[in-house]
Structures are given as structure tokens and as C-alpha cells.
Amino acid sequence: MKKCSIRLKITLWFSVILLVITVLMTFAILSISSGVMQKNIQDSLIAIVEDNVDEVEYFQWLEDASLDGDGDDYLAYGDGFLEIDDDFLDLVGSNYTALYQEDGTLLYGENLIATQTVFLSFQDNSIQTVSVDGEKFYVYDRMLEQEGLEGLWLRGTVSVESGTR
Fold first, then answer.
1. Distance (Å, rounded) from C-alpha 45 to C-alpha 60?
2. Residue 154's beta-bridge partner residues?
């Protein structure tokens, strides 16, 4: 380096500095975009589960429900019936939503990893991360609080990798 011209030395220093800055900026952009993507996946999961909270109703008598043939599903539950509105979103993209009893019994909906999450305790308004066969999933639980729905939970699941697919 002692026999190189000053012009070559300055050019090499600028090249090295530009290369370092480019690598650092690329790393920063990839890190930030990954974080934003994971936040969007979580927000989407929460929104879908929250939308489904209003789609489950309890009726003491089946005659109280509006049996208008619009595609609603009815399940016997306790001393009455659950009406699952036809707007219930059990699968949206790669977001799965299911209705559970507090003991973990699946009543309605879909859950891709139901057998692996059967022993996962419910946590209201909380996102948990579960690993199944090397793939990570977000799990979001929401307790139903309306009259007659005590002990019922909505559980939404989505793969962490769903944003990159």
C-alpha cells in the first residue's frame, strides 16, 4: 500500500466505506421489514378473531333464534343453543379460527394445529408462539363474555411464515 498513489488509496477507502454502509443498510432494511411483516400478521390474526366474537350468540330456545335459512349453524350447548352466524370466518388466507370450550374441546371452526395446541392454556387477548414440526405459529385467544357463552373461547392460529409465502 506504500507504493500506491494517493488517488488509489482514497478510492479504496471510499469503496470500503461505501461497501460497509451498503451492508449495514441492507441488514437494517431486512430487519425492519421482517418486523413489520410479523406485526401485520399478528394484527390480521387479532382482527379476524375479534370480528368473529360478534358472530357467536346464545339462545335459550331455538325458537328465539331467527331461523331464516341464511346459512347460520346451530349447536346444542348447555341448556340452549349456539348460533354461529354465516359470517363466521373460520379460514381467511392462512388464518384459522375455531370455537372451543374451556376444557379444550373443539366445537366449531378450523385449526390446522388443533392436536398440537390442545394442551396449550387459553390466555385472553394474548398472542402466544407455538412451534409445531419446526414451524412457528402465532396463537391468539379471545374469551367470549356474552350471556350464555361463559366458558367459550375463540382461538385463532396463523403460521409465522405465512407472510413470506
1. 31
2. 99, 142
